[in-house]
Amino acid sequence: MNILYFHRLDSSLGSEKRAILEKYGKVFSPAIDYRVEFNSIEMLVEQFKNQKIDVVIGSNMGGFVGYYVADAYQKPALLFNPSLTKRSVRQKIPIYKAPPLGFKQLVLGIRSDRIDPRGTLEFLSKNLQVYTNYRIHIRQNLGHEIPIDVFKEEVVEFFKFL
Predict the structure, then answer these.
(1) Which phi and psi angles does 132 have, rounded to 5°?
(2) What is the total count of domains within the chain?
(3) Is the pLDDT of residue 4 over 80?
């Protein structure tokens, strides 16, 4: 299985989280400078089009990118606190002709000081696709950071559901 992971703004995939993901397959986690690369979504879709990606995972800004990359590839996605409504950096959002197919599991932290889960839920209510199955986990004690135990729990559940 090929897993495409997108990190949050000004970050990278840590070794503990990488080790969890590697139990499920080969992990691709490109370094992305979201501040410089305005067209990161289309760039990444093109970059990995020959890798036969099976799932997309992202956190925060990477969750935003992962949402649209999963649509482009029509693959399942696990998205932690995705920045779907507000971002501190400008990004082009592509429009894909084919309807998005698949499954998206979103993990939203009520205590996030940067990403308002209500905004994410409102975005989803306006952009729900009839071809996509959503699971939304609202975590009462989760903030912006995704602790390793929460990451592992959500990854395990995501792969069980697939």
Answers:
(1) -115, 135
(2) 1
(3) yes
- Ordered DSSP codes for the chain: -EEEEE--TT----HHHHHHHHTTSEEE-----TTT-TTHHHHHHHHTTTS---EEEEETHHHHHHHHHHHHHT--EEEES--SS--SS-------SSPP-EEEEEEEETT-SSS-HHHHHHHHHHH--TTEEEEEEEETT--SS--HHHHHHHHHHHHHH-
Q: Which pLDDT score is estimated for 1?
A: 97
Distance CA 59, CA 21 (A): 14
Query: Which of 109, 112, 104 is CA-nearest to residue 138?
Result: 109
Give pLDDT, residue 97: 74
**Inter-axis angle of helices 61-73 and 40-47, to 10 degrees?**
50
Task: Check which CATH number belongs to the domain holding 72 and give it.
Answer: 3.40.50.1820
